[in-house]
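Supplementary Note 3. Input sequence used for the single-chain structure prediction.
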Amino acid sequence: MTLHSLRVRTVLVAPIRIGLGVLWLVVARFAGSAPAPAFIAFLVGTFGAAFLALGDPRARLVADDEEPGPVPSGATVAPRWRQALGACWPSTLGVTLLAAVAAAPAPTLTALLGGVSAGLGVAALVSLPRVDPALLVDPSTRVVYRR
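The predicted structure, written as discrete structure tokens, is reproduced below.
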């Protein structure tokens, strides 16, 4: 069984998301979006996604009465690159694909989607102090364990 550290995933995915967001803003400008609409769309996407990700009401519906169990014997922790890739799937890669498809026909939409990506990165950074470094997750089953 290969586990991922919730904290490491959060630390690794935040700069990836922010970097991709800025990249899509630049692509939107090169694809023909005017500066003001591109920047406004980027800001709306950033603040909107961060607000929605941090204020997700589904988090209140999850019962956290159950304490994470101990790490099973023989479990290993995945390398950092694999944890980063796992944290990017599906949200970061999905937003990136949508931004790529929109680049030529709708560059301002690409800027908005870049903002969504950056907003998810900002949300990851803001949530980082609340992520317990002792928690590990099995990405295939979503079961959480404590070191």
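The helical segments are 6-30, 35-54, 58-61, 80-88, 91-102, 107-127. Residues 2-146 form one domain.
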